[in-house]
Structure formats: C-alpha cells, structure tokens
C-alpha cells in the first residue's frame, strides 16, 4: 500500500537530512512551532501550506496516490486504481496522453532539408507542425487538382 505519511515520517526525513526543527522552519519560511505540530501529528495534511513548504524544503518527492489518500482517506488497491483512472479521465486529453505516452523528437524533413527538432504531440510521432495525415497528392489527377486550387488562391491574394 505504500508509506503512510505521518509526523514520524516527516521527522525521520528531517533527521536524515541532518536538520534541526528550527533549521527546517527557516528553510521552509514557516514558524518552528508548525514543524513541531506536524511532526507530532498522526497524519500529514498534504494540502496544508506548512506541510507543502516543509516537503519542498526537504526535497521530498510525494507520489500522486499519497495526495489521493490525503483527500479521500486510506483506500484499497482496487479503489486506488479506480480513483487514478477517474483522475486521468477528468484531465484534458492532452495532459492525460502526456502521462501515458512519451514525447519524442519529430524528425520530419523541414524546408531546409534538416530533421525537425520539435517534440511530438503526446501519443504521436510528429510535432504540431508536421502532424497531418496527408502526404500530398499521389496521382496525376490529384496533383493537377491541387495545382489548380493553388493557382486560384494566388490569383485571389494578388487581387487583394
């Protein structure tokens, strides 16, 4: 299930860093009594101002499921997985894809002939500039149709 984030865990992390309560309070820009209070508590409020400041000052990385536990209480593994999926579904698609699919270099050929160095869109292999599905017209009729459309556009832009 993971580590329960309690005052004892905070005190152990502080001592492992070789800091006194007052030194941690100074680094976190909070009062030393807040450090004393939270180290004597049974559970940390991860959404609290002082706790966030202490966690940042200690360089402590806390996983998202700890935040979910802080908000919703202790969950079983199944409930935790369901909650994580609900959180992912509630995110905009672009953010959810960034969690699931890594972004890679686009690599498409630019006008200069060099490979594109922009990062791909989440879940895709091409960047936002080169991400279209079209590879251009493949038949002679298609090339003629595109050429005619481009000539009409150029004539319209010249008139303006």
Automatic annotation (TrEMBL):
<dbReference type="InterPro" id="IPR010982">
    <property type="entry name" value="Lambda_DNA-bd_dom_sf"/>
</dbReference>
<dbReference type="InterPro" id="IPR047675">
    <property type="entry name" value="Putative_zinc-bd"/>
</dbReference>
<protein>
    <submittedName>
        <fullName>Helix-turn-helix domain-containing protein</fullName>
    </submittedName>
</protein>
<dbReference type="InterPro" id="IPR001387">
    <property type="entry name" value="Cro/C1-type_HTH"/>
</dbReference>
<feature type="domain" description="HTH cro/C1-type">
    <location>
        <begin position="10"/>
        <end position="40"/>
    </location>
</feature>
């Amino acid at each position: 299930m993971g580590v329960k984030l309690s005052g004892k865990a905070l005190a152990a992390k502080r001592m492992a860093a070789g800091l006194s309560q007052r030194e941690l309070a100074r680094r976190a820009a909070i009062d030393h009594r807040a450090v004393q209070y939270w180290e004597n508590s049974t559970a940390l409020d991860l959404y609290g101002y002082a706790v966030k400041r202490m966690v940042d000052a200690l360089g402590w990385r806390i996983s998202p499921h700890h935040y979910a536990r802080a908000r919703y209480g202790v969950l079983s593994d199944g409930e935790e997985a369901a909650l994580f999926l609900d959180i992912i579904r509630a995110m905009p698609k672009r953010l959810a894809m960034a969690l699931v699919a890594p972004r890679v270099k686009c690599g498409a050929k630019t006008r200069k002939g060099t490979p594109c160095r922009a990062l791909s869109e989440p879940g895709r292999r091409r960047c936002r500039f080169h991400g279209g599905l079209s590879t251009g017209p493949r038949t002679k009729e298609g090339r003629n149709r595109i050429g005619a459309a481009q000539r009409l556009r150029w004539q319209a832009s010249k008139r303006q």
